[in-house]
Structures are given as C-alpha cells and as structure tokens.
C-alpha cells in the first residue's frame, strides 16, 4: 500500500509540474526575448535622437563615448549627405548570432543597433534551469509528504492488522490505540468493543467451567456414597432399594445443577421462585450430609420453627444449603446446627458450627470470588450468594466466631402461592 501511495503521489506531482512548468518555461522564454528586443529598440530610438541632436548642434559623433554609453552593442549609423557618412561603434559578436533593432528619422539618419543573441539565450537557459530546479524541489517535497502520509496511513493499518490477529489468537485485551484519523479511530473503537465482548465471553466460559467443577463435586460425592452403600449392602435387598432410590434423587439433583449452570452461563437464568417447604429441602440435605459428618466424627442437627415456607427454587436453595454444609465440614468444627426462624419480612435459615470461625482479614471479603481462608477454591460462598440472590433472597455472614451464615428468604403467604419473583442470574 505504501508503494502505491508513493507512486500515485509522484505521478500526480509530475503531471502537476509538467502542466505548470512547461507553460511557465515557454512564457518566461518569450518574456526574456521580448524584453531584450524592447530594450534594444528603445536604445535604437534614443540613439537616433542623440545623432539628430548632434547634427543640429553640428557636433561630430564620438565613437568611444557611444561605446561606453552602450556597452556590448554593435552600432551602425548612416547619415544622409554628400558624401554619405557612416559611423560604426563596437565589434560584431564572434558567434555571428545577432539580435538587431533599427530606427530612422525623416532627415536621413538611420541607426541599427545589435547585440549578441547567445547572451539572451544564456539568460533564457538560466531562467529555465531555475524553473527546473524549483520543479525538482517541488517533486522532492511531494515525495517527502507522500512518505510521511503513507507512514501515517500504513502504520496504523499494520497496527490494526496486528490487533485483529491478536484477537483471532485469543488475546482479547483492548488496545485503546488512537491514530488521529477519524476513519481508523472508528475501526480501532470497533475492534476494542469486539475485544471487550470476546473477553467477556471467554471470562464467562472460564467461570462456567470453574463453577461447574465446584458445584458438581458435592452431588457427585453424595452419589458415590450412595453407590458404595449399595455395594456394601448387596445382601440386604431392603437397604439396596432404599439406597438406590436415594441415588436416583442424587442423580436428578445433579441434572438440575447442570441445567442451572448452563442457563447461568448463557445469561438466561431467571429464577422462578415459588413457595418451597423449607423442612423438605433441609431434610433432604440433612439426609445426604449426615453420613459424611458421621464419618468425620461430627454431628449435624436441625432446629427451629417447623413447617415454614419461603419463595425460592428447590434446586437453588438446596445448593446454597449444600455449599454452607460443605464449607462447615471442610473448615469448621464440632456440631453443625441448622436453625430456622421467621419474621415479618423474611424466613431465616442459619447454619452455624463450633469451629475457629473466620479470620478478621478475610471476613469483609468472604463472598468475593477466589477468596478462601483454608486453601480452597474460594468459589463456594460466591456461588451460594449468587443463587440466593437469584431466588430474591440474600446470604450473609452474621457472626465470625464461631462462623454463622444466614439465608434470608421472602416468606410465602397462603394467598400468594402463584406469585413469581424473578431474581438476577
């Protein structure tokens, strides 16, 4: 592209110089020749007047004085009389190329004055050389400007090509480069917006993979435990049947978790909260987690007000409780107590243990992504709070030591069983 710009600019400059320089050279040449002829004619007329004046004064012509007065001129003067008087001043040019003008009077005085034409032509050539030099200088300036302009245009285009190539390779960082050219700046802005969108998409994909691996771990662990119980109780059909039904429930819960994660990844999750029996969801979670706590030598206890109902989704609320129980199992200690209560505005479910609690330096950021006090992933509480918010509720840390988390859900009144609350994804 740079070569094409230089070539096109040079062609335009040459055409412009030729269109202006050739007529200018012709005009200047004619002006110089015409000026020399006019000057020579004026000298001839003036010399005729001087000769006529000398005749009236009866003063003889002095050739040396005329030669000094008209240097570089070859002068011939004829005066009518008897005999005819001829006066010659100067010498003819050695080249033999003469430019001649003459003048005469009615009294018989005839003057012819000549000069070297080669001198006039040298003057013409000097002016033409000046014009050519100016034309070459103009071409040089045009080429310089073309080089600067081509660099100004091609370097941003090369930079934009590198940005586009970087986007194609997966590096979605906005460049924020601007070049002072409105058209190129608009292209750069479009690429920056595309980079931002691609970066958001990649971030969501990475978050989805991370969230999926974290959220699927708990249901898979529970399902594995059920299958191990089935294998261990293969000689007891009643136990096998019971554990098989529990495994089916775990598999259905796993499917629900996958559906919720996929919907959230596509930004299409609109939690349709409906009245949920709190005791039913908590009972299911206690049943799933009690063997795990028992194997760890700990106790899981359910207390508080019974037969509460709140606006939530069964899968989302269950995931929040599972995340809190897993967090307590890994980082807490002692007995874990799930307490339910109700107020005028919220149904409250508290999950507390008897462990060392949460350090003061991370407590304000405990719900931030990738923040963990025990070397974990730092995703469980973040996802749990997001799920609670999606159901129109909230998850809060109400006490640091021992750690106590509270879920606040909107109560479901008897006359609003069909009410739908949409929360953010």
Describe this structure in words.
With 425 residues, this protein is α+β, with helices and mostly antiparallel strands. The chain folds into 3 domains: 1-127, 2-Layer Sandwich (Beta-Lactamase), CATH 3.30.450.250; 182-270, Orthogonal Bundle (Helix Hairpins), CATH 1.10.287.130; 274-409, Heat Shock Protein 90 (2-Layer Sandwich). 57% of the residues lie in helices and 16% in strands. The strands form 3 sheets. Strands 6-8-9-11-10 form a 5-stranded mixed β-sheet, covered by helices on one side. Strand 10 and strand 11 (404-409) form a beta hairpin. It starts with a helix and ends with a strand. Mean pLDDT is 81; it is low at 267-271 and 414-425.
**CATH topology-level name of the largest domain:** Heat Shock Protein 90
CATH class value of the largest domain: Alpha Beta
What is the overall number of helices?
8
Major sheet, described briefly?
Answer: 5 strands, mixed
Count the domains. Answer: 3
Query: N-to-C SSE series?
Result: HHEEEEHHHEHEEHEEHEEE
Question: Strand order, biggest sheet?
Answer: 6-8-9-11-10
CATH superfamily of the largest domain: Histidine kinase-like ATPase, C-terminal domain
* Quaternary assembly: single chain
Domain Histidine kinase: 211-413
Domain HAMP: 151-203
Pfam families: DraK_HK_N, HATPase_c, HisKA
GO molecular function: ATP binding; phosphoprotein phosphatase activity; phosphorelay sensor kinase activity
